[in-house]
Amino acid sequence: LFVAAITLPAAFPVSASPPEQVLLAHEETGMHGMHDHWMAPKEAAKRKNPVPADSASLARGKKLYETNCAVCHGTTGRGDGPGGAALTPKPADLREMSGEHSAGDLAWKIANGRGPMPAWKETLTEAQIWDLVNYLKSLHDEDAKSGDHDQPHHH
């Protein structure tokens, strides 16, 4: 691992490993049976969100999501946005995924991107990325409270 020195010093390390090694991170974390799953490097996934998930952060995260993410991930986060229809891999269902991944994992993915998903670390500040993480986590929390788990899950 090395540290991105552009706008996020030491905040979001970028993997120097081939993508296959990052994809196999589940084996190291004990999450078996999901070997094709995109995971952040272990140290990045362990990072805690320094931004409190208060109403101000959630409002900022929602605005950032609507501006930058909804076109592919959909207005409700289900991965069904019009911009993602032709993408491979398909955009993730963020409502489901945000409950299965740590804040550090989500922040690293937002910062670094993969394939058709852009890296946002040169566009968004570290605090904005954490606001987005707070918003994504709130989407999953809404589903958990309402019992809405009937949607198909894909990453």
What does this structure look like?
This protein has 155 residues and is mainly alpha-helical. The chain is 45% helix and 0% strand. The protein is globular, with a radius of gyration of 15 Å. Residues 1-10, 14-35 and 151-155 have low confidence and may be disordered.
Query: Structural class per helix/strand content?
Result: mainly alpha
The ordered string of helix (H) and strand (E) elements is HHHHHHHH
Counted by DSSP, the helix tally is 8
Task: Please state the CA-atom Rg, rounded to the nearest Å.
Answer: 15 Å
Low-pLDDT runs: 1-10, 14-35, 151-155
How many β-strand runs?
A: 0
Which word captures the global form?
Answer: globular
Main sheet record: none
N/C terminus separation: 24 Å
The chain-level mean pLDDT equals 80
**How much beta, percentage-wise?**
under 5%
- The residue fraction in helices comes out at 40-55%
